[in-house]
Amino acid sequence: MAKHHVTATLNGNGVEFLCETQQTLLEVLRDELHHTGTKEGCGTGDCGACSVTLDGRLVCSCLVLGVEARGKSIQTIEGMAEGTSLHPLQRKFLEHAALQCGVCTPGILIAARSLLERNPDPSEEEVRFWLAGNLCRCTGYNKIIEAVLDAAREMRGN
Asked: What is the model's pLDDT at position 158?
């Protein structure tokens, strides 16, 4: 089977990879580029564990083909912190104990960052709506919502 040569930007760095036509972006991230922070929860786009941004758009990487990333910018959980400094969302998730097993956490963090980039002052209802595509089997959602709202306040300087 023929492989496709793809160049893209991953967390601000240029990358090249070979992938088969049917390989998902999730598979490419994990198997070809060794960025294993993005998780597979369902493989059908229903749980949000594999959420990444592709050219600034929040997507389920299990529903995007690797070849579709050609020439695009991909942001994953590995690119969220700046060096050893955690992103405010990551810190607030720790402070609020908003994670347990960790399977859903990377996708929720990526989705929450996407929300706060679009709306730095969301209401609780808006956070709940925006994160509705991310399923968590362990924590419940209250601590997650509190962490996102607290991070939003911090990021606004309040």
From this structure: 78
